[in-house]
Amino acid sequence: MTQRRDWAPLLQAAPLALVLLLFFVFPLVATAVVSLWNYTEYSLVPDVTSRNYAEMFEGCGNLSDGLCTTFRTYISTLRLCGLVWLCTLVLGFTVSYFLAFHVRSDTVRMALFLVCTAPFLTSNVIRMISWLPLLGREGLVNQALVGSGVVDAPQDWLLFSDFSVVLAFVHLYTLFVVVPVFNSMMRIDRRLLEAAQDAGASGWQTLWHVVVPLTKPGLVIGSIFVIVLVMGDFVTIGVMGGQQIASIGKIIQVQMSYLQFPAAAAQAVVLLGLVLLVIAAMTKLIDIRREL
Amino acid sequence: MTKRFGGSVAVDALELKIPAGTYCCLLGPSGCGKTTSLRMLAGHERQSSGDILLDNHEVSGLPPAQRGTAMMFQSYALFPHLSCLDNVAFSLRMRGVAKAERHAKARRMLALVELEALADRLPAQLSGGQQQRVALARALVTNPSALLLDEPLSALDPFLRGRVRAELKRFQRELGITFVHVTHSQDEALALADLVVLMRDGRIEQQGTPLEVFDSPRTAFAARFMGGHNVIGLPGGLVAVRTDRTRLLPVAEGAVAATIRGIEYTGTGFAVALAGPRGEEWQALLSEAALRAQPWEAGQDAGLGWDEVDVRHLAAAA
What residues does the ABC transporter domain cover (chain B) (predicted)? Predict the structure, then answer.
């Protein structure tokens, strides 16, 4: 009897533990181990070498020749990530605010919320690719702009540019901000808004001093989603950037295609470390466990 | 003033004058329009017609903060992310008062409610009674000329309720400002108010001092809601007689007959539950001496008697 009681919780936890071990811990450890291996053009050599890390940061110590490739790529990736983060945060907050505070009826709120999630019924890639005929040189937007006489010639910056990449990311990931922020907002006691009004707060003051602080957990969770997704992406940046924009994900993908697995693994480990640092900094700001 | 929500009238042509410095209780069952009336006073609800004057100024069009009223919300609505001090200083901060000045003033308010030591705590770290006092300090920090309290005691346990009730009354007396207090508890209203306003279905049923409203109910509703009365149908119309003035007599001598349902010892006397001939529920509060002089038992028939001065004739139901 005592025996059974001791084993039961372990047995219950076992399936999830096995899945996590097999599909999360093992690949992670394997990546870390492989990042220390050596390689030639045609083979992987089990080893403990710092070669992959050294090559990654080769020439990075010498700033007089300009930044090394790795640093420039990181800056480019972080810049894109920052832009996407800003846009999704502002847009996600606005949409959530509208849903949570302006829509009075619960039925309408749920209906609008479902409308927000509807695009997720199609695949990521399809949603991304469907921008191409809209934004291209002969695309719908350019035709409309030229046709209406707003511009003389088709605009090139619409596609295969930072603009199109950020647009696609915002389109793909805003919902990941909307959901947690909306959840945070729905927990705000409506009387707090009246109390703020009673204390003489204007609409903006109420927003800044009451709604935003109480929405912080949602904002942090949404930010983590967006940053993690954008930092590791190579498909969206590839497709929407016309394979012209550098990103860490892209570097890893290229190295993999040349079978330089140890180099790719080293890149992945550094990227993982950086993203974990960002998340750690964010969770310092707010205790997200309270929210979950 | 009148308030309509869609087709239904929540507050119907309410006309009420509250003298300055009065502790006024809006009393009534739920749904009688007392909270709506308070929210209209506060400016969180806009009246459909009519005016609100405060200190002889028309305030109906003004936002809450410019009315000179402050509201203390049911369950307090303290900002959970701000410390007590910042909660109290919030309205000063909204007005752009410098940090040192607003904190000094907020500290004085917290000292007034004896919570200075807990200034840096978050609301979640306080007990119900302490939260209530923070809410009070927050409402008073702007020096309002009227404080509006929405069921301020309903979130407290019964033991605290009595203590906080006494504190509220003390604050009102010391500050000399008008309190308008919404409640559904007649005990609270009787204990606190200078002016009791009994509401029913969006109208004022009766208003007056606690003594007037309790001792001389004008209608059967008032008598029943305030409690402590037997509403008795006599050939001349409905009358109310206080339960402690109702006597039990032999059937032949009583004005009406009733059956004793049960007798409960209350410590200070006995409560005799009675059933009237048409199923009315009555009660007579007897002293120990009275019951000893004339013992009664459950199941007996008795007559109800009273002195003529204790009879209150009730207006026919509206």
Answer: 1-226
